[in-house]
User: Which sequence fits this backbone?
């Protein structure tokens, strides 16, 4: 193998490695994002569960208000209860979706790590080969 | 345990503790807030209106009035409000307070667990640095090498056993020349000791009593060191002086160490001391003559009548186990059955016997200061129970009537 060919090989390897690293970083970012989203959803879920409990304690004649922007809007108790329940269900669904996505991203990350490891090995081998050629 | 990894672990654990502490702080604040709100809600409906300083902006206050003191909008979460009275709001606050306290409790437990983990890592650190004074002794285990060693060990043990067996046979030839460089077993040494004892005993008996002795012919099988040998009616126990005993003890110790040179030396020392044992002091017991009990049952056995007044003789007289008793027991014990036979009591004879015994006792006492060279006076004075009874009769006042009854029965 001539030195020129070795150089070419090395460059192509380098490019590939760059590409793979970028992909890996992207995957990681997505992963972190979904992890954060999941945490938030978890907090919201707890909050809504507490609201539901309090609403259940209320007697029928109590006034319930919802704050929409700077305005407090009066709501019916039953309606309020239903709304809160719907919200809880929605949050649960979102939570499951997030969990699924997070698992996928984890798998993807593992695969990319392996690819990167292989590429790095190849790159090192190429370097050694080039060093040998140069020393000849 | 690598030190730098442990250091990193400790660092992470400390970070975790810091986080937990921060959370605990936050929740403590919430708790205090809820407590304050509850207090306020309790005092609020006391008056219809409160005069207060109303803040507007972040830097100014304005005097104002707080009306509708019993109408409170409570935020339930997620932008939901509910109108409640002061009392009801206080109840809500109470519930929230309980939840915060629960949360605080969990956080504190978490903190404790992390602390324990930190302790463990510190322990590991000290062990890794070897600063706590504990050394981990490690031996490499190679299963192949162990098998080799086991095989060799078995061979060595076999050789040892064979050599010791061979060594027992020519034991007699090696009596005073000592063992020549071969390992000797315990059994052989005990046998040798027994033989030396017997030799010494022989010599002593020849000089003292001039009696023939029956020797036990056991050789290699006798393992006990001090066998009290029963010869006829005499019990004889041997003591040797301190130094030979020590040599024997040393010898036993040296056996454990399997040192051939030591053994040879010890054998020689022992042979030397056995010859010098002749000079040592021995304690021999002989029993004094005891008059037969007057109340004894009439013995029809000719052998016993013959033997009782004299020193009991040994060996050939003993045909059955019962003979042993007749020969050796010189005082006849009193029967527990009531004595129906009325024998003529020879009081005079009894008194003369008592006088005789007294004389013997005083004679023995006189002779004791003179025999300081001997370790013992050599005579064991047997007490005559009959003499004692007669003496007791002389003082009737101190005796109980039952005893007196018995005495009178005995003297009949």
Assistant:
């Amino acid at each position: 193998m001539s030195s020129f060919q070795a150089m070419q090989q090395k460059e192509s390897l380098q490019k590939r490695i760059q590409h793979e690293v970028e992909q890996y970083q992207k995957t990681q970012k997505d992963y972190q994002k979904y992890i954060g989203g999941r945490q938030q959803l978890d907090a919201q879920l707890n909050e809504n569960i507490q609201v539901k409990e309090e609403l259940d304690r209320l007697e029928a004649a109590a006034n319930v208000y919802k704050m929409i922007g700077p305005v407090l809007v009066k709501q019916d108790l039953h309606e309020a209860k239903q709304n809160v329940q719907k919200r809880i269900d929605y949050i649960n669904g979102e939570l499951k979706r997030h969990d699924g996505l997070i698992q996928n991203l984890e798998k993807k990350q593992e695969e990319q790590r392996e690819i990167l490891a292989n590429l790095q090995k190849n790159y090192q081998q190429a370097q050694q080969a080039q060093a040998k050629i140069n020393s000849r | 345990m690598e030190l730098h990894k442990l250091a990193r672990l400790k660092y992470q654990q400390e970070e975790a503790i810091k986080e937990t502490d921060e959370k605990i702080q936050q929740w403590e604040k919430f708790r205090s807030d809820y407590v304050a709100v509850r207090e306020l809600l309790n005092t609020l409906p006391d008056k219809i209106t409160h005069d207060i300083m109303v803040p507007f902006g972040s830097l100014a206050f304005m005097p104002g009035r707080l009306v509708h003191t019993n109408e409170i909008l409570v935020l339930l979460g997620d932008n939901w409000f509910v109108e409640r009275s002061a009392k009801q709001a206080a109840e809500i606050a109470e519930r929230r307070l309980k939840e915060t306290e629960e949360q605080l409790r969990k956080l504190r437990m978490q903190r404790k667990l992390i602390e324990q983990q930190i302790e463990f890592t510190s322990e590991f650190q000290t062990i890794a640095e070897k600063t706590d004074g504990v050394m981990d002794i490690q031996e490499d285990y190679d299963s192949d090498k162990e098998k080799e060693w086991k095989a060799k060990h078995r061979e060595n043990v076999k050789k040892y056993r064979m050599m010791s067996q061979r060594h027992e046979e020519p034991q007699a030839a090696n009596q005073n020349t000592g063992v020549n460089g071969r390992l000797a077993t315990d059994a052989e040494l005990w046998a040798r000791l027994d033989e030396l004892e017997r030799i010494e005993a022989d010599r002593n008996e020849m000089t003292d009593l001039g009696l023939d002795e029956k020797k036990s012919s056991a050789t290699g099988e006798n393992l006990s060191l001090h066998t009290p040998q029963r010869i006829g009616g005499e019990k004889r126990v041997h003591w040797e002086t301190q130094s030979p005993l020590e040599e024997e003890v040393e010898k036993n110790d040296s056996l454990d160490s399997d040192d051939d040179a030591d053994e040879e030396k010890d054998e020689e020392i022992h042979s030397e001391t056995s010859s010098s044992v002749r000079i040592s002091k021995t304690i021999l017991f002989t029993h004094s003559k005891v008059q037969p009990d007057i109340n004894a049952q009439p013995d029809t056995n000719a052998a016993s009548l013959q033997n009782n007044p004299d020193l009991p003789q040994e060996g050939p007289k003993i045909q059955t186990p019962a003979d042993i008793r007749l020969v050796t027991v010189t005082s006849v014990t009193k029967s527990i059955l009531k004595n129906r036979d009325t024998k003529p009591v020879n009081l005079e004879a009894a008194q003369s016997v008592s006088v005789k015994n007294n004389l013997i006792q005083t004679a023995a006492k006189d002779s004791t200061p003179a025999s300081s060279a001997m370790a013992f006076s050599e005579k064991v004075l047997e007490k005559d129970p009959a003499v004692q009874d007669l003496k007791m009769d002389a003082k009737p006042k101190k005796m109980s009537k039952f005893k007196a009854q018995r005495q009178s029965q005995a003297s009949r």
User: Anything to note?
Assistant: The beta strands of chain A are 64-68, 71-75. Chain A has one domain: 3-135. Chain A touches chain B through 19 residues (CB under 8 Å).
